[in-house]
Amino acid sequence: MTSTYMVPMQPAVRVRPAVETAPVTVYGNRWCGITQMTRRLLDRAGVPYRYVDLDLHPETARRLRWMAGGDVRNPVVDVGGQLLEQPTARELQWALARAGLL
């Protein structure tokens, strides 16, 4: 027997907040071979990332130099808040795996 006052229970729905930016950001230069290799590695792994060209954004380059306490070697890769300066492929893959992106 069904009652007109019974409302079927709906399962709880969890909504994930929208991700506004990719969890990985690559800071580098178009002319830098290591920057381009890093970007290719991320492309091949299918990891979404944001790219910031430091030649076009000198204020970001100044901020990175301040954070590093001096000169910065390109590229700088931000993986979920961890900054990697000129990472090797193995270091980048380890950081991506640790962040759950691989």
The gist of it:
This protein is an alpha+beta fold.
Q: How many beta-strand segments?
A: 4
Q: Helix- and strand-based class?
A: alpha+beta
Q: What string, H for helix and E for strand, traces the elements in order?
A: EHEHEEH
As a whole number of angstroms, the C-alpha radius of gyration is: 21 Å
Strand content: 15-25%
Note the total helix count: 3
Strand order of the largest sheet: 2-1-3-4
And the CATH topology? Glutaredoxin
Highest CATH level, the class: Alpha Beta
Describe how the helices and strands are arranged:
Elements: E1 24-28, H1 33-45, E2 50-53, H2 58-68, E3 76-79, E4 82-85, H3 89-98
Parallel strand pairs: 1-2
Antiparallel strand pairs: 1-3, 3-4
Protein name: Glutaredoxin family protein
InterPro entries: Glutaredoxin, Thioredoxin-like_sf
Domain Glutaredoxin: 24-83
